[in-house]
Amino acid sequence: MRPKSGLIFVILVLLGLVILSCQNGSSLRQGPANSDSSSGGQGQSVEVDVLTYHYDPTRQGLNALENTLTLSNVNSNSFGKVGFFPVDGKVDGQPLYVHELVVSNLPHNTLFVVTENDSVYAFDADTGTQLWQATALEHGETPSDDLGCNLISPTIGITSTPVIDLHQGRNGAIYFVAMSKDSAGNYHQRLHALDITTGEELFGGPAEILATYPGTGDNSENGQVIFDPRQYAVRAALLELNGAIYMAFTSHCDFRPYTGWVMGYGATTLAQTSVLNLTPNGAEGAIWMAGVGLAADTQGYIYLLDANGSFDSTLNGQRFPNNGDFGNGFLKIATSPQLTVADYFQPYNTAEESEQDVDLGSGGAMVLPDLTDSTGRTRHLVIGAGKDGHIYVLDRNNMGKFHPGNNSQIFQDVANGLPGGVWGGPAYFNGTIYYGNNLGPIRAFNLTNGQLPDLPGSQTSLLFAYPGALPSLSANGASNGIVWAVENTNPAVLHAYDAANLIRELYNSNQAGTRDQFGPGNKFITPVVANGKVFVGTTNGVAVFGLLQ
């Protein structure tokens, strides 16, 4: 089944990008149109910047301004690997992109790459020339070891996707969190802001990340839960929202003591502005989300899924947990004046899911555009899924909270939509939601009146190896929709599918023998498309794909 398309969709996409860019300063940004001889006869090329995970804070994963790569030229005859940018460690964070950035007095389309060796690189995205490299390590430090957990291994440095703000500092700033270990064996988490043209530290940074929060849970003392930088890493992509940088922390495997931390820091001061603990009187409840970014809507709320942990089934008069513990929850977080849980959804069998490690924490949230239901009412929805295989669609104005025995209070629960569970997040294009589950295909669910069907309209013939696919999309308005995904195998494989019919594979990087191969796979990798090129993080660099001519 082909998703609906048309002028209304194009207007909504472009309007949404403008609104988010104005609100958050960290969205996919349209630049000036230039003639581009590499566009395969497409005429005017529209330059874009990719400044945050999945293109914008909604995490919809769509670049709708791509007019170089099309359904007709993405094939093994005209498209393939055109470069590889080597770095000093694993690339677990999604690369970011700024077009025509002036570095050393010359304009460069610039790709930013972070590594688990605590390095940041800026490359010319067209030639592969390294423009600068910076380290987040202080004298005598090394990246953190993996602390006996193989989830981020063998070292932990910069794991999550950074965020870029082109309006901070003299030339723009890239923000990221780095983990390190000093010569005395102490572990550090620090927030950095670097000038995107030089790699120099900004705003007196970096800022050491430390925190306490009222509570009696894991690692508490005298009524305060204490943040121990040794026990955590930042896996979820950073979010910039209304002048603040937000981050969330995961554990190393399930090695206690740990709890669920979310923090905000001023973008121009790097000073801590707000702290929230989601399990302050319990344990666990970390935020993992397989690298998906903290999501946000235009009202200034943050959405996330947290992992197995304490939940207080005794509720107060507002149906919030009595002790403030939200383990294994789908959360809406207010940012003003402080970080607080504004609303939530908890599966009816949350205690069982946490006990069996079949929780929501493996998945991320995505904010949907406004949709109209069957009664003509406009709905403000958010979607997410985790290890239990359910797809949860929630009304952002009434998330559903906790009700023993059923999930009937939420907008929609597709109970077996993603068998095997999800380690990642969805993408959205043209009225369709794209999801890749563990050991399963990428599925396209076509929305009708804001509702998902029980079965997908199309799906790939390929079953993606663990952890499944984390899809992203490129399109030119409502046309030439392409779904991009990486298969975590050896060698890894980049796939491209017709977004209107996933059974139609346009390209994969094994089709031309070894010509386009780029080494072994890496977990939780999301391809990023910018100005006719596709960038894929690997275990030792970034593979670059584009038109071969």
How do you describe this structure in short?
The chain is mainly beta.
CATH class placement: Mainly Beta
Number of domains: 1
Q: Please indicate the percent range of residues in DSSP E strands (runs of 2 or more).
A: 35-45%
What is the fourth-level CATH superfamily?
Answer: Quinoprotein alcohol dehydrogenase-like superfamily
| Number of helical stretches of at least 4 residues | 2
**Rg over CA atoms:** 22 Å
Low-pLDDT stretches = 1-26, 32-44
Q: Specify the helix fraction band.
A: under 10%
CATH fold group: Methanol Dehydrogenase, Chain A
Structural class based on helices, strands and sheet pairing: mainly beta
Find the count of extended strands (DSSP E, 2+ residues).
Answer: 45
Terminal CA distance: 33 Å
Largest beta-sheet characterization: 6 strands, antiparallel
Shape: globular
The overall pLDDT, averaged over residues, is 93
CATH architecture descriptor: 8 Propeller
What does this structure look like?
By secondary structure, the protein is mainly beta. The longest helix has 18 residues, at 7-24. Mean pLDDT is 93; it is low at 1-26 and 32-44. It has a single domain, classed as Quinoprotein alcohol dehydrogenase-like superfamily (Methanol Dehydrogenase, Chain A, 8 Propeller). The radius of gyration is 22 Å and the shape is globular. The protein starts with 6 loop residues before the first helix and ends with a strand. It contains two helices and 45 strands. Strands 9, 10, 11, 12, 13 and 14 form a six-stranded antiparallel sheet that branches. A five-stranded mixed sheet has the order 3-39-40-41-42, with no helix packed on it.
